Amino acid sequence: MEEYLPLIIQLVSGAAGGNLAAKLLPKLNLGTLGNSISGILGGGLGGYLLGMVGLGTDGGMDISGILGSVAGGGVGGGVIMAIVGAIKNAMAK
């Protein structure tokens, strides 16, 4: 179970990041469920990409690993939510 903890942290942080980004960018808001789902996807993707470039966690659960998972997930979640919101707005025009 411990090997999945960084991923779980990234997914939860992604959901939080997606909802936070929606509060900061209300024109891109997808609703709570949409923000959470896109944030979860972005959190997983953000954590994966950080791992690929060597900035992610190596599965360790020290404080730097936890903070890296939170940051990667939160930023990834916010970015993906904003991208999906912008695409949705562009298609609605």
Automatic annotation (TrEMBL):
Transmembrane segments: 6-25, 37-57, 63-87
Key words, A-Z: Membrane, Transmembrane, Transmembrane helix
Protein name: DNA methyltransferase
Species, as recorded: Flagellimonas aquimarina
Upper lineage: Bacteria, Pseudomonadati, Bacteroidota, Flavobacteriia, Flavobacteriales
